Amino acid sequence: MPTPPPVPCLAAPFGITRARDQVLTATDDAARAAAALGTPDLPWSGQARHAYDDATAEVRAALLRLDGTLESCLTGLDALTVLAETDVASLRAELAAVGGA
User: Is 101 helix (H, G, I), strand (E, B) or coil?
Assistant: First the structure.
């Protein structure tokens, strides 16, 4: 009797796509803010520094979320692999028993 699979990775595919988009958006924001920092004599250079700091912090946070999402999915895949190997061994044993009878 096959073993039921574990709960599917709820993040796939939309959670991974959303986390990846957050990383890309935050990276773009950081690049724009970094470009604004290149001209520190402008009156909004202080705002650019805050925007850059916020954007780089969001990049780090988004990367951590993406890492957690991917780790969750990989853990699920590992569990599926173990279950599949167990089911294959069980089926081979059943076939051997039927063939040996």
Answer: coil
